[in-house]
Every structure is written in structure tokens, then in C-alpha cells.
Amino acid sequence: MLRTGPSSALTDDQTGRAARPANATASVVENAPHRTVTKELAHRTTETDVFPTRWSRISDTRFRFTAHWPAAHPFFGPVDAIHQDPMIVGETLRQASMVLAHAEFGAPADTHFVMWDLTVFTDPGALLLADAAEPVVVDVVCSEIRRRGRGLAGMRTTMEFRRAGRFVARGTGSTGCTSPLAYRRLRAGQLDAMDKPVPALPGIEPGLTGRDRPEDVVLAPGDGPGVWHLRVDTGHPVLFPRPNDHVPGMVLFEAARQAATAASGLRPFLPRAMTVTFDRYAELHSPCRLETEVLDESPGEVTVRVSGRQDGESVFSARLTSARPRPVRSLS
């Protein structure tokens, strides 16, 4: 059954621009059926790496997902004995955005996606390992929807994450879509070089990055304090689940988090705010230099700016702010 009217208070994207979601004239579906998220829709190769589990359509631009953030995961595992990894919020947002692009906005399965920006705000006190069994409810607004003919050229997704009714995080990201033919014209040289090996540089000490396993480190030693090089391991099952002609945006996001952790010396580094803007593709076969600047802008918090440059040009810029852990209360 259809009705008209607003369905939620989530109406603006995280950049402060007004989204154009359900409004006074948008049709809203009551008791909408749920659809299951597959690993293909989420662009993952194993089910254990898929965090959104199902979704329902509320209106043309509004959706609600249920997600599961496991207590243990080979990469998105806990950062200490208390907290889950805040990066799982960004990864859930990324997966849910691609699910909607394919299943609700008609992007073909062979569409190439590029992430232009990603912003995540979290309440670290709500990202508790003890609450991992609780489902996460994700309310989504799609805005800035751009069409190319009948196809999808790109859109922004803004999401609010709650667990047992408690606010956990909010995020937004803008994604562009490119057809295989257009992508071939744009990236022919890089696509033809995908079989060329990419030697993995030696990583820095895992503990400096907030990681436990050497294989999860994406930073290599640099040539000065607060400077590192991007370490690319195309065989990593989570960071590179399939062959790629460039470094995925989430690898750069993880590199920014690891660089902020190493530069700040804060253990654990629990960002309450993370913003990254991508300026160009990060190439696999050229060194990418990461530079950091630590800013002590307010008591009890540390903000780190991270910039990535390759071949003399900016690849990405990020800003991460972490508050020192405070006492938290579990839902249970």
C-alpha cells in the first residue's frame, strides 16, 4: 500500500547540503518486503565480508537496511578488548551504496564505481564489542542522483546507523558510475597492465598502525617523521578481493587511519570523525607518499590530517579526529 508524506527525520546529507529524499510528495511503501543482500551486489567474494544483510524500499530515494557487524573478522575485527572497528561503518556504507546502485537504480553488474568522498561520524562509546550480536539498523537517503540516459551516472548516499535504538554513526559518500566501454577508454593502459606484478613493500611494525597482523599493514617506511609510503598487497583477500587496475578507495581510507594512528601515537585510535576526498585514481605501479600533520585543536582530542601524493599530484586528503576512550555502558 502506498501513502505520501515523510517517513523519517533523516533529510540532510552529512556535507550540510539538503538531500532530496522523501518529502511531502514522495510515495512511501508501508510494510515493504525485504530483499537479501548477496555478495555479488555488495562487490565481495565471500559472504563473511558482507555486512548489510537485507533491505527494504521505503520510497524512491529512501531505504532501510539491516546489517551485522561481527565480533570477529579477519580484517574488520575489534581494535581493543572493548570497541569494534569504526572503519566497518565506512565499509558498510560503501557496500550498501553499491547494492542500491545495482538493485534499485539499475546499474548493470559490470558497472565500474569510483568513490569521490566519504565522511563518517561515530560515537565510539556505542561501537561496543559486547553489543556485536545486536543487529544494526541503517536508514538511507539517496540524493544528487545523476542519470546518463536511462542509466545511473552517480549519486550520494547518506546513512544513519543505530543499534537497539541507540545512535552509533552517521555517514555520507558520493559515488560515480562508469560503463565498461567508457572505463576502457579512460583506463586502457592500466587495464592492460593488470597482469604486471605489484611488489609489496615491507610494512612498518603492525603495532604502530593499530594492527595486529603484518599482512594488514598498508604503510611502508618513509623518508622522515610522519611520512610513509603506501604498501600495496594485491593478494590481500579483503582489501583486494578481485583484480583491480588501481588502489581501491577503501584501501586509501585505511591507509589514512593507519597513518593517523602512527602519527598520533594514540592506542587505540578511535575516530569520532573521518573525512576523505579522492582527487584521482591511485595507480598500482607508482609510489604513493603519505604525509601527516597532527593538530591538537581541543583538549582530549587529536586531529590528524593525511595527504596522499603520487607522481607529484594529489591522490587524496583526509582528516581524522579521535577522542580518548571514555567509560561506556553496554546495551546488555
Automatic annotation (TrEMBL):
Domain of life from the UniProt record: Bacteria
Give the residue ranges for region: Disordered. 1-26
InterPro entries in UniProt: AfsA-like (IPR047757), AfsA_hotdog_dom (IPR005509), HotDog_dom_sf (IPR029069)
One Pfam family linked to the record: AfsA
Q: What is this protein called?
A: Gamma-butyrolactone biosynthesis protein ScbA
- A-factor biosynthesis hotdog domain ranges (all copies): 43-175, 210-321
| Bias type Polar residues, positions | 1-13
